[in-house]
Amino acid sequence: MTTDYSKYKNLSPFELKDELIRIASSRTDRLMLNAGRGNPNFLATLPRSAFFNLGQFAVSESELSFSYMTVGVGGQARVEGIEERFERFISENRHKAGIFFLGRALSYVRDQLGLSASQFLHEMVEGILGCNYPTPPRMLSLSEQIVGQYVLREMVGSDLPTDSTDFFATEGGTAAMAYIFNSLKQNNLIKKGDKVAIGMPIFSPYIEIPQLEEYGLEEVAIQADPNLNWQYPDEELEKLKDPAVKIFFCVNPSNPPSVKMNDASLKKIADIVAHHRPDLMILTDDVYGTFADDFHSLFAVCPENTILVYSFSKYFGATGWRLGVIGTHKNNVMDRLLQALPNEKKEALSRRYSSLTTEAENLKFIDRLVADSRAVALNHTAGISTPQQVQMVLFSLFALMDSKEDYKATIKNVIRRREAALYRELGVKPSEDANAVDYYTLLDLETVCRALYGEKFAQWMSDRSSSAEILFRIAEETGIVLLPGEGFGVQKPAARASLANLSEYQYAAIGRSLRKLADEYYQAFLKANG
């Protein structure tokens, strides 16, 4: 193969992916298998069915308001009598998929969450019709309470009261991250030259964002150790004691190792915050937390210091919906740091936000996020679309009412069967770790070669082949697309494979193809060594 791999060395793994796909697709006599991206091929159907059925009820409510007009014109839904009309709609349409779920959802909201059924229905109907600006712009009021119930249950458990946290609905986790970094900079909570600690390995764009010219942050790697099942050693976490480190940024469970932070690491970080760094800001992306067993976010142990980001994209198969939330504790370190800024900076920020409130100096960080997301002046039109918020609420209710966790158990079983199929055909045992989530798997070059043919072969492979070369050869010779681990901050040659976006038999085919390639390398090793 004559490809010059050096020209790709600065590309993000997700940009390199396009070149690998081109090579893997170059032959018409085989199927290209793209295990490079984490878009799941499973999704939650019941809350989607409920969404479309709710839309039909909402249209009838709109038409009822302007029933004297010609067909095709509706008005604003009326809250008076809406619960009775909804009960009649449920009764008349029980045969349709999703209708029974809507009836149960209303009962849950009323009887378990203690919210007004009429107000909830009115918010959902207006929301799904998309007939009003999002009000409040941060998030619809009852939607925030319901989504907050779900997020805190999954990320924290029962240790935090649901009214302890403010939520801001965003266009997925990616928008959340863009908004957060921008507001941290705009509000002088980070500035050029500050240190940001990053839990490595990590989703590659999170390495790239702090390096951008507008942020200019100095990155401090907090390296997870593969020999400790990808947990952070104490000596790495000790770096967080440095007062020059303004923020700790991590994905939990990790991407790509796909391992949740263990209790010892959570306790270590909480102790550092409590006794050494009460001013440390923590930013955690917990999108894979719902795939873990007994998951606890850093928000559970350091709620006042942590900005929690959660996306609905992976667990519900909703990447195209762009649904995410930012959560901050109502008593948080960002607000305290804002109050501790020098007077001249506080005055400048008061001028920045003066069009929003007469007490701009007291504006909470999360509300500054909302304003900054729309260049402040357009704050009154901030917020994600109301139909998006309705679908987010239905996803949340679907999970909250799944008392036996049937959906969760099913999708976790799906990805673990896929992992088993890949490694079975490869001829290597997957690592056994109670903290593993298995949404991705890291194929470590040396570990796989050592397991197949011993230490000498592993060293020979490591000396003669870069992981980039191997990935290009895999793409060219097998039609399989994997992503380079180095792009995610992995220090050893490795490839990331998603276990979410292909079928079980296809993962078995990947395992067989990789084993065939390893066998060919081994024959070359034997020939080279006589």
From TrEMBL:
Keyword Hydrolase among UniProt keywords: no
EC number in record: 2.6.1.-
Transferase as UniProt keyword: yes
EC category name: transferase
SUPFAM superfamilies given in the database record: PLP-dependent transferases
Transmembrane spans: none
Superkingdom as given in the UniProt entry: Bacteria
InterPro entries per UniProt: Aminotransferase_I/II_large, Aspartate_4-decarboxylase, AspAT/PAT-like, NHTrfase_class1_PyrdxlP-BS, PyrdxlP-dep_Trfase, PyrdxlP-dep_Trfase_major, PyrdxlP-dep_Trfase_small
Cofactors named for this entry: pyridoxal 5'-phosphate
Reaction equations catalysed: L-aspartate + 2-oxoglutarate = oxaloacetate + L-glutamate
Gene Ontology MF terms in the entry: aspartate 4-decarboxylase activity; L-aspartate:2-oxoglutarate aminotransferase activity; pyridoxal phosphate binding
GO biological process, one term: aspartate metabolic process
Similarity section: Belongs to the class-I pyridoxal-phosphate-dependent aminotransferase family.
Name of the protein in its database record: Aminotransferase
Taxonomic source organism: Zymomonas mobilis subsp. mobilis (strain ATCC 31821 / ZM4 / CP4)
Lineage of origin: Bacteria, Pseudomonadati, Pseudomonadota, Alphaproteobacteria, Sphingomonadales
